[in-house]
Write a structure and sequence with these properties.
The chain has 646 residues and is α+β, with helices and mostly antiparallel strands. Helix content is 34%, strand content 21%. An eight-stranded mixed sheet has the order 5-4-3-6-2-1-7-8. It binds adenosine-5'-diphosphate and magnesium ion.
Length: 646
């Protein structure tokens, strides 16, 4: 065999190349590291420029603090950082970097040049490169505006094995763009530019106000994201969750468009993913993925970011609390989205200078192609969509004229005088002047604001025994009556079942489970949690559990796998909604059988009652299987179909 070698210290370049294996996988990882440095330097504007998918050139330019001449020789060495000096500081670290190895790693596997200036005078500045096996820094004067530019050429030129793993230019650039997207979503107060092969793909002005934020979301994630997202901002127990979550009906086939930031750092975390999945359970169509851009802010001392060199993973000191907080905040936000509502977004015009972006057109499944008011509108067409009290009253009159008898019984508890109505169906659609004298007394609407028609409008007809056609303020709505009713019945049953004490029933023959000691420990610790769910679970021996009682609804279910899954959930996440989920599954089946079937003729009162019920019911935008229950078409869209006004 080979002759025994002496122990030697690795030369710096080789040592850096080894650690580069962990952080520098492809151009996108270089971009991530360089941009994180630019953010840590307090930059207000960051430009990322690539050639050839980043394989040839990557340049990141910032206007941050710069690096002083005295510090420059150290910037490219390993374990050299300005961000922490002690372990205590690491525990509360707020900067994105702290390991002091990115620049050293990158410059060991590519030709890296850093030019920096801490001075306002653009004639000063210094350039540094690391040379040879010892990676000796060479510093020379080089003028540069205040800030830093790092240029990385010929990535992996000296590590052919790594270079072989680079994919096509398009694929590599796709990864870079994704990294850029994450960074740009992490800091709205910074202005961003992304260029590829001398083309500007993103130009994002800084801005922290809601309009600027949504404009950025729109240019990074597309219009559909914003039109189908709910905004939320929840704070409790030192945690704050804000951002946007997609409506369940706007799901995607891939789990892209999922961004989760913890203190400004993008993370992919199992606990977080689980909490989000649970929140969407019951409203998302099977196999589809929700979209979200969410920001969690926590005290840096209760989260450990030094779990992995790429820092994509985090560890929370109190994982249960975080899980609970995420789940309940999202669950509530999604539950509050009723039929007829949508995210309230300000008018978000596209930034004009943004070049067309390379956006994947992954198929989205959208409930309503509802245009934002004012968007893409022809000049002079703005009036029609504006909801003025006059318009609504005119509409109401039109409705009354059409259906005097239903108007009475549905909307006005006491008989009211009918206004001398308009002529026919077209009334509501015209801009009509209604003089005060002819105004009808306000009907008692099931709405806070009596000048607004209910969001789902008023039923006009039933189509083929399956759909309800309804006229709304904006146009028309079509409702799948079975799907809608199913959700209403289901939500009602859930409230009854989970609101009151769950009815439980002792098993005739207790089920004995062989269990691991960890499972036994969890069963003991979580005894109360099980009881609350109607499950009596006793420890019968060091490796045996006994199920004595389960909820009546699950009396015929196979309890063993259910209990095991619950134990695993409780151990890992501190809560289990499996039992609730199983009960809900049963309720869902029951609801399906209890709902209006197709081909039943409904009267207008019944249809309107269903529409009002939908408006009141949580999660009524989707049936129990996650399919949409209704869809809307605005007048503008109808006009477009008939090429009116073009
Ligand atoms: N764009 C930049 N602006 C100012 N200082 C920078 C920049 N990039 C790197 N530095 C300095 O170089 C040091 C080393 O960077 P790096 O190798 O990425 O390690 P880390 O970010 O973990 O400290 C940083 O601590 C910082 O002081
Ligand atoms: Mg760094």
């Amino acid at each position: 065999m080979s002759e025994k070698r002496h122990i030697q210290i690795l030369d710096p370049r080789l040592a850096n190349q080894i650690s580069a294996g962990e952080v520098v996988e492809r151009p996108a990882s270089v971009v991530k590291e360089l941009v994180e440095n630019a953010i840590d330097a307090g930059s207000r504007r960051i430009e990322v420029e690539l050639e050839n998918g980043g394989a040839r050139t990557i340049r990141v330019r910032d206007d941050g603090s710069g690096i002083g001449e005295a510090d420059l020789p150290l910037a490219l060495s390993r374990h050299a950082t300005s961000k922490i000096v002690s372990l205590e500081e690491l525990e509360g670290v707020a900067s994105l970097g702290f390991r002091g190895e990115a620049l050293a790693s990158i410059s060991s596997v590519a030709r890296l040049e850093l030019v920096s200036n801490t001075d306002e005078d653009p004639r000063s500045g210094w350039r540094v490169v690391a040379e040879g096996r010892r990676m000796e820094p060479r510093v020379t004067p080089a003028p540069h505006p205040r800030g830093t530019s790092v240029t990385v050429r010929d990535l992996f030129f000296n590590t052919p094995a790594r270079r072989k793993f680079l994919r096509t230019e398009k694929t590599e650039f796709g990864h870079v763009e994704e990294a850029f997207r994450r960074q740009a979503l992490s800091r709205f107060d910074i202005g961003w530019v992304l260029r590829h092969n001398h083309r500007t793909l993103h130009q994002l002005p800084p801005g922290d106000d809601p309009v600027a934020q949504e404009r950025r979301l729109q240019s990074l994630l597309g219009k559909a994201f914003l039109e189908n997202a709910l905004h939320l901002d929840v704070e409790a127990g030192g945690l704050r969750l804000s951002g946007w979550v997609g409506l369940p009906t706007h799901s995607r086939a891939q789990a892209d468009q999922q961004y989760f930031f913890v203190n400004g750092r993008v993370v992919r975390d199992r606990l977080v993913a689980h909490a989000i999945r649970q929140a969407y359970r019951d409203v998302l169509f099977h196999g589809r993925h929700p979209v979200f851009v969410l920001y969690l802010e926590v005290d840096p001392r209760v989260v450990d970011v030094n779990v992995h060199p790429t820092k994509h993973e985090v560890r929370f000191r109190d994982g249960r609390m975080v899980h609970d907080f995420l789940f309940s905040s999202l669950h509530r936000a999604l539950g509050e989205a009723r039929a007829g509502e949508r995210g309230e977004h300000e008018d978000v015009p596209e930034t004009p200078e943004v070049a067309e972006s390379v956006r994947e057109a992954a198929p989205t499944w959208q409930q309503q192609p509802m245009a934002l008011p004012g968007q893409g509108e022809r000049a002079g067409d703005g009036d029609r969509d504006r909801v003025t009290p006059d318009r609504v009253r005119a509409f109401m009159e039109g409705y009354r004229a059409l259906h005097p008898e239903h108007e009475e019984s549905l909307l006005t508890p006491q008989p009211a005088a009918l206004a001398p109505g308009g002529s026919a169906a077209g009334v509501a659609l015209e801009e009509r002047r209604v003089s005060p004298a002819t105004r009808a007394p306000r009907p008692a609407m099931p709405e806070k604001d009596a000048t607004r028609a209910p969001p789902l409008g008023y039923a006009v007809a039933q189509l083929h025994g399956v759909y309800i056609l309804s006229q709304t303020e904006r146009g028309l709505v079509v409702v799948d009556m079975h799907a809608a009713h199913e959700r209403i019945v289901y939500e009602r049953m859930k409230t009854q079942v989970h609101g009151g004490a769950l009815q439980a029933q002792p098993l005739l023959v207790p089920v004995s489970l062989a269990a691991s000691s960890a499972e036994v420990a969890t069963a003991e610790a979580e005894h109360d949690a099980f009881s609350r769910l109607g499950v009596e679970l006793d420890v019968a021996g060091p490796e045996t559990l006994l199920v004595r009682q389960v909820p009546v609804l699950l009396a015929d279910a196979d309890v063993e796998p259910l209990i095991r899954d619950m134990l695993a959930d409780l151990e890992r996440y501190g809560r289990s909604d499996r039992l609730e989920a199983r009960i809900n599954e049963l309720l869902s089946t029951m609801a399906c059988h209890g709902s209006v079937r197709a081909n039943r003729q409904l009267g207008l009162e019944e249809m309107n009652a269903l529409l009002r019920d939908m408006e009141r019911t949580e999660r009524s935008g989707q049936c129990n299987h996650g399919r949409p229950t209704w869809t809307e078409m605005s007048m503008k869209e109808l006009d477009r179909l008939f090429m009116r006004g073009q």
